[in-house]
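To make this tangible, we now present a fold written out as tokens:
***
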Amino acid sequence: MNDSGLASLKQGKAYPDGTVFVFDLFDIHSAQGAIETRGRKFVAVMKKSAKLNPSTGGWAWEVFQGDEQKGSLQDPKPCFDCHASQKRVDYVFSTYTP
């Protein structure tokens, strides 16, 4: 998350335009109590701009497979459909834990 949305995350309020969340998912292997990464699966990014994305609560999504530099998301509808369950908290699954 960037600084734009940190106060909102802490207070549980709607996020201002410019807020960015990044989810970095790695493939892992676990053996004998040790966990090691086996490469990046994808990086998912969601950014808020109410003017550009009025039909999705202001949010846009992008996905970067592995270490790719170019986004590969063809259709943001599945992202919005999943995040719609979190409408009461501005479509975000994250919560602040001090």
The chain is about 15% helix and 35% strand. The chain has a mean pLDDT of 94. The domain at 3-89 is CATH 3.50.70.20 (Chalcone isomerase).
